[in-house]
Amino acid sequence: MQDRAPFQIGTKRVAPGARRTVELPVSVLSDHTPVSISVHVVHGRRPGPTMFVSAAVHGDEVIGVEIARRLMRAPSLDNLKGTLLIAPIVNTFGFLNHSRYLPDRRDLNRSFPGSPKGSLAARLARLFMVEIVARSDFGIDLHSAAIHRTNLPQIRVSPSKPETMELAEAFGAPVILTAPLREGSMRQAAQKEGVDMLLFEAGEGLRFDEFAVRSGVSGILRVMRKLDMVPAKGIARPTSAPIKATSSSWMRAPAGGLVRMYKTTGEAVHQGDLLGVVSDPFGEVESDLVATESGLIIGRSNLPIVNEGDGLFHIATVSRPDQNEETIGDMATQLSADPLFDEDEII
What is the DSSP string of 166-204? Predict the structure, then answer.
């Protein structure tokens, strides 16, 4: 068998069968502290696809960082075919400041494909496109809800190829939402370069969530198994098929005040169900929040103080919402019993 060539990224080369963390210089802070994108490269001895996993594109979405950390410890990577690129913290600026944004308040995930002479966000986006996306065949980007919101683990996908939907199904998250590409997003820019992606959403900004982390780690390993990058041993198939949705909508606060919510993520709702009540601080005026359609709650606000029009429940349109609620329970039970996570549980 012919030896594989080393993997080139930035100014570094990673030999076949080796793994190395490479620093891609981005800029310097105002005090001249250097900032880079740290990329952990696992270059297998045998040929196969190149896949990237990215997290903290929004700096406060830290759950993906924990998923990446656990992924790097997975024993399956010892027998990798192909190359895996893991960037646990893409937006270092936001991560250090517990913020979604870059210092100039730009959203990195609205700045792709970027420009080498543009804003800081544009330059960072361009570096990521050139050094990581352009070297890959496929990618998974890890996200959470914003602060004060939480998401049920879900895959968002806009497939340009049939096999991308197959990989979304292999991931095994509770929900697959076919979502349109957003202007300036990494997914849109990558697809224009011929690189399809899955976007994983789970949990809440600046918080860890064990179910969300386990869903993310298991899903990435399942996708790698589907791509024949890792052996099947130790990677459990999902016990239930993911729930598919092609549309979703937000139920918004009918008035400002204090909200009492009666439903949470993963629960089925039916048209006419009472989801919550918004009250003034004196308890004199109350406004009911009633479901206008049936579906499955895939996200919700955690903040009891609301303004009129605030998004409170994110509801996906699905068939048989009640049966889908059972599917989520089955998946949670499977992940809680998976020996892959025995040493890492977050209490």
Answer: HHHHHH--SEEEE-PPPTT-HHHHHHHTT-EEEEEEEE-
